[in-house]
Amino acid sequence: MKIVFFGSSNFAVPSLEQLINSDHHVLAVVTQPDRKKGRDLKLAPTPVKEAAISKGIDIYQPEDACGKEALKFLKSLKADIFVVVAFGQILSKEVLGIPRRYSINAHPSLLPKYRGAAPVNWSIIKGDTKTGLTLIRMNEKMDAGDIMLQRKIEITKEDNAQTLNDKLSYLGSILLLDGIRFIELDKIVFRKQNKKAVTLAPRLKKEDGLIDWKKPARAIHNMVRGLVPWPCAFTLLSGKTLKVWKTEVMSYYNKPEPGRITDIYKDNIYVSCGKEALIIKELQLEGSKRMDSASFARGHKLEKNMYFGDPPKEAPPKPDISENDQDEDESVSSEENIS
User: Fold this and answer.
1) Any idea what DSSP says for residue 335?
2) What confidence score (pLDDT) does residue 253 get?
3) What pLDDT is recorded for position 327?
4) pLDDT tens digits for range 180-209
5) Strands (E), the chain
6) Mean pLDDT, residues 219-242
7) Which residues pair with 270 in a beta bridge?
8) If you compute the radius of gyration of the chain from its CA atoms, what whole number of angstroms results?
9) What CATH number has the domain spanning 2-197?
């Protein structure tokens, strides 16, 4: 098969490499233009461009892959298939109709669930235990094409968006080869997506990482996992941005004010949430390096009863109870404090 590959991010690199190493012929790679990156704002190529150059594949970098010049170039290649993986531009119906057979896309979710730019992140943020990779025949609507092939994988407790992205990237490269082989054999059976089951996975913004300590610890934990490595979950500590990289959930019966550090114990920082508590294991203050909680607590004089985020405006009043009432209250808390 003669293939034109559209891709830009690291997610697309394994798929490109699989196609280059196969019996198929990659005519050209279409990728995003070089962009300014880093503190020095130097122009940097996309990961797909770097991979293509290393394999001696022709590169095309249009600002608009649907423009007149791009249309002319793409038609001149006379491709059998366009393969699109994490390209970063919406392709028009005219572009998608250029190849002799199909334009196909590898999308990292179980479509129709999580159409959009950040399906891997949202699957973890929402607390899903399974996700997968879907191969579709593209149409002009975002991620709405007919399903060709689909594979499920488990989201483990240890997964974050970065590790899950790597797993799905590899799975996509394998599924693409299967799909192209079935196209060659005319054995593809297309399946319409269920419109009633559509959910969206919108592009993430930096402000999406701000932690609301009033939420349950489980929801914050999934948010932390789902936002690695960008934009990363964050809170405030004495007015400075504090990134939270790794957490666990701890069950508490008592319920201090959300955001309060309830303990610093055995190299971990315990923070009260709207429900249960969060154990912070790795974090990073702005201008500093990422570190484990024990090192951070020692180096930044972190203490019990300090607050992450905005502390309450007024401390809750202490109850006025008799000595007998106090004894009864303490006996209850000793039995029900920590499960």
Assistant:
1) H
2) 62
3) 38
4) 999 999 999 999 999 999 999 999 999 999
5) 2-7, 25-30, 35-37, 42-44, 59-60, 81-85, 102-107, 130-137, 146-154, 233-237, 240-250, 261-265, 268-272, 277-285, 291-292
6) 96
7) 263, 279
8) 25
9) 3.40.50.170
Q: In this structure, are residues 288 and 276 in contact, taking their beta carbons and an 8 Å threshold? A: no
Q: Report which of 182, 27, 11, 17 is spatially closest to residue 107, judged by C-alpha positions.
A: 11
Where are the CATH 3.10.25.10 domain residues in the chain?
206-315
Give DSSP secondary structure letters for 33-79: PPEEETTTTEEE--HHHHHHHHTT--EE--S-TTSHHHHHHHHHT--
Task: Tell me the three state secondary structure of residue 120.
Answer: helix
**Among residues 176, 162, 154, 166, which one has the least CA distance to residue 84?**
176
Domain with CATH 3.40.50.170 in the chain: 2-197
Give the pLDDT confidence of 278-296 residue by residue, as tens digits: 999 999 999 999 999 999 9
Answer yes or no: is pLDDT of 245 > 70. yes
User: Amino acid identity, residue 299?
Assistant: G
Give the chain's length.
Answer: 339
319-332 residue pLDDT tens: 443 333 333 333 33
* Side chain identity at residue 262, one-letter code: T
Q: Are 24 and 105 spatial neighbours (Cβ–Cβ below 8 Å)?
A: no
Which residues, in sequence order, are CB contacts of 166 under 8 Å at separation 6+?
A: none
Amino acid at 148: M
Under CATH, which number does the domain 206-315 receive? 3.10.25.10
- CA–CA separation, 60 vs 33, rounded Å? 9
The pLDDT of 8-20, averaged and rounded, is 98
Tens digit of each residue's pLDDT (9 = 90 or more) over 251-270? 876 678 999 999 998 889 99
- Burial (CB count <10 Å: 0-12, 13-18, 19+), residue 242: buried
Mean pLDDT for the stretch of residues 42-46:
95
Q: Whole-angstrom Cα distance, residue 159 to residue 177?
A: 26
